[in-house]
């Protein structure tokens, strides 16, 4: 019988002893944790793990005396502490001497040979130097009883509750282990988790971490371990501290690492043994090459003499062992001066502030620019022109300005002023309340947005110019044959046929497609203009409501808000777009080139219709019909159907799984009709429905 089947059988049997069941669940969950976080080889789905964990939580909730220190339920966090207790390390947690270049590392190797009075090769264990926080884990009879920070090497802080929450730290060791053993290692935050955490924090307006090292250290020092439990931390061992005399350790450090791994503790997969100085140097170089492709940050390589007897002969000096060294990589963080800030315009009109820096070498590369993201980030950092700042570079990521050294701020430091007009095309810059990104409103004429604007203009739902694909548009722009969308209609056969992979017949087909696209509809033309958040539905509603382009261009915000699906933000986008003289000029040039559509007075609304003048919103899943059908029925009754709830909404039709629109309707005290009430409304007014 499989483990899973035996668990299910036990769960179904009323005769099973609750205490035995709890232990069975603990053993299974600890095994699954080991398979998932240490072996990277999960054997059950997450849902099965969650089911078993909930069962164990229920048992321990009903029978608290069955809760044990190694229970997987202890990983969810404990009651917040008022302060951390101090821990005195039985064996000091020493630091390592550093080698900053190849010469210093070679000198270290030569010292080993001299102190051992042996000119032969010295075997070294090589491992990445993780950029995190050093931690000591003490196990008694295989159970984690204490975790502590390194502190000053002699005294650290008791962070047991926090470390218990780290998924790959076993609360009970596996296999054959000492009666008492201290496992030392690094707690770090993997890069994927770090980026995800910061993005979530930025979106919520919270504090972001400067780097993964700070993230790990800050997470471990939370007095509320439930906060730590939500942080994506991992632990990796780099050695042992105290070990009880009852256990015979192997003779080499490399074998000790394998022993640690057999207990269910993670060791670094890059760990290897170098048999000579040349092999050690090659490991350092190879790790440096792959440094930025690793899923975690490292700041160097640690080399330790492999033979434990030789370690004892070499001994210690001051607060560091003679038999180990950290060979550091070039720093990914440096200080420099912020000399100026420029503002760049992205392909979608986003305005990005770029810091111009006094050049500084970071991680082996000279950096003179760094991103500042947006106005909110500038405000969060509190940075000014002239400040001394900390710059960070990791891999291919654009260098970032991560903090300001305030005590070095000069008297003549000046504020960074965000522009009100686009630095490329001089159009107004728009920033919608609640959005972090400011954008240029000159979508049709801004050269920074040119390619994207043209690609959108000819797309299938817009003017639908067959044969005019992305690569062809790229060529036309790069060879300066077109500057804006109106130039498309002045292209010649000779110009098109002269492009790469364009025969005369293909070129003529494109010209024919452009000619055909001139006959369009007002809705398609509005959509083709690329006004922010004006999709096909909104474009159709605008065309139906106003009937004429000039009326839309002249409409004020209040008039636009009367259109179905147009809210405050969309209305602002429309007003801002048509306020730009450049955009109006392009529209006029398109019309001069022959782009045209039928215009007519909009159909007057039947004032006698039962729901004339009413605005409705539909949300959720209706049991009796689709939302499109419901919309059609409401429009037959004369109602306007909007996509968002506002004070102007008369009623909301809410089906199953109605979300935020229902909440907002309730807050605004808007009438809510459920499926039955909506069906009764249709029946009342004689609407035939299936």
Automatic annotation (TrEMBL):
Binding site for Zn(2+): 422, 425, 446
Cofactor(s) demanded: Mg(2+); Mn(2+)
Protein name: DNA ligase
Function: DNA ligase that catalyzes the formation of phosphodiester linkages between 5'-phosphoryl and 3'-hydroxyl groups in double-stranded DNA using NAD as a coenzyme and as the energy source for the reaction. It is essential for DNA replication and repair of damaged DNA.
Residues covered by the BRCT domain: 606-690
Catalytic activity: NAD(+) + (deoxyribonucleotide)n-3'-hydroxyl + 5'-phospho-(deoxyribonucleotide)m = (deoxyribonucleotide)n+m + AMP + beta-nicotinamide D-nucleotide
InterPro entries: BRCT_dom, BRCT_dom_sf, DisA/LigA_HHH, DNA_ligase, DNA_ligase_AS, DNA_ligase_CS, DNAligase_adenylation, DNAligase_N
């Amino acid at each position: 019988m499989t483990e899973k089947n035996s668990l299910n059988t036990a769960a179904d049997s009323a005769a099973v002893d609750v205490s035995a069941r709890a232990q069975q669940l603990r053993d299974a969950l600890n095994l699954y944790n080991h398979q998932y976080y240490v072996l990277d080889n999960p054997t059950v789905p997450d849902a099965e793990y969650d089911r078993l964990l909930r069962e164990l939580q229920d048992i321990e909730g009903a029978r608290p005396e069955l809760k044990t220190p190694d229970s997987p339920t202890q990983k969810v966090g404990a009651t917040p502490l008022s302060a951390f207790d101090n821990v005195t390390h039985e064996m000091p947690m020493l630091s390592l001497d550093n080698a900053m270049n190849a010469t210093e590392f070679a000198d270290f190797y030569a010292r080993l040979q001299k102190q051992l009075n042996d000119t032969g090769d010295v075997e070294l264990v090589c491992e990445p130097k993780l950029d995190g926080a050093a931690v000591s884990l003490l196990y008694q009879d295989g159970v984690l009883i204490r975790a502590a920070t390194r502190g000053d090497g002699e005294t650290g802080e008791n962070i047991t509750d926090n470390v218990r929450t780290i998924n790959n730290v076993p609360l009970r060791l596996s296999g054959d282990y000492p009666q008492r053993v201290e496992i030392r290692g690094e707690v770090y935050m993997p890069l994927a988790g770090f980026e995800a955490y910061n993005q979530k924090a930025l979106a919520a307006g919270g504090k972001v971490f400067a780097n993964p090292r700070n993230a790990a250290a800050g997470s471990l020092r939370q007095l509320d371990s439930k906060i730590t439990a939500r942080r994506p931390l991992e632990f990796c061992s780099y050695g042992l501290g105290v070990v009880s005399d009852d256990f015979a350790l192997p003779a080499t450090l490399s074998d000790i690492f394998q022993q640690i791994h057999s207990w269910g503790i993670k060791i670094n997969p890059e760990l290897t043994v170098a048999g000579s100085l040349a092999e050690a140097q090659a490991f350092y170089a190879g790790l440096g090459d792959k440094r930025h492709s690793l899923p975690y940050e490292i700041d160097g390589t640690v080399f330790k003499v492999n033979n434990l007897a030789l370690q004892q002969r070499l001994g210690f000096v001051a607060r560091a062992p003679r038999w180990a060294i950290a060979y550091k990589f070039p720093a990914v963080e440096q200080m420099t001066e912020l000399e100026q800030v420029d503002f760049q315009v992205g392909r979608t009109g986003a305005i990005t502030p770029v810091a111009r820096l006094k050049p500084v070498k970071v991680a082996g590369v000279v950096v003179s620019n760094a991103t500042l993201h947006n106005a909110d980030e500038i405000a969060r950092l509190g940075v000014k022109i002239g400040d001394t700042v900390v710059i960070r570079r990791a891999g291919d990521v654009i260098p970032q300005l991560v903090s300001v050294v305030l005590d070095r701020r000069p008297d003549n430091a000046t504020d960074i002023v965000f522009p009100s007009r686009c630095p490329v095309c001089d159009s107004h810059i728009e920033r919608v309340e609640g959005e972090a990104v400011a954008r240029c409103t000159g979508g049709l004429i801004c050269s920074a947005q040119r390619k994207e604007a043209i690609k959108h203009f000819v797309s299938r739902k817009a003017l639908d110019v067959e044969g005019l694909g992305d690569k062809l548009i790229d060529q036309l722009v790069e060879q300066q044959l077109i500057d804006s969308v109106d130039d498309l209609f002045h292209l010649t056969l000779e110009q098109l046929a002269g492009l790469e992979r364009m025969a005369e017949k293909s070129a003529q087909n494109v010209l024919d497609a452009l000619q055909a696209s001139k006959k369009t509809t007002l809705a398609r033309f509005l959509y083709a203009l690329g006004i922010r958040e004006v999709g096909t539905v909104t474009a159709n509603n605008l065309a139906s409501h106003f009937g004429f382009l000039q009326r839309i261009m002249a409409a004020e915000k209040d008039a636009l808000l009367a259109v179905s699906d147009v809210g405050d933000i969309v209305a602002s986008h429309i007003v801002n777009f048509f306020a730009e003289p450049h955009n109006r000029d392009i529209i006029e040039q398109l019309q001069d080139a022959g782009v045209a559509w039928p215009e007519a007075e909009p159909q007057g609304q039947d004032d006698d219709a039962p729901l004339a003048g009413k605005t409705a919103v539909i949300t959720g899943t209706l049991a009796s019909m689709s939302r499109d059908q419901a919309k059609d029925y409401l429009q037959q009754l004369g109602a306007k159907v909007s996509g968002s709830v506002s004070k102007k909404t008369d009623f909301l039709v809410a089906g199953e799984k109605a979300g935020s629109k229902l909440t907002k309707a309730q807050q605004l005290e808007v009438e809510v009709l459920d499926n039955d009430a909506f069906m009764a409304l249709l029946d009342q007014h004689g609407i035939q429905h299936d």
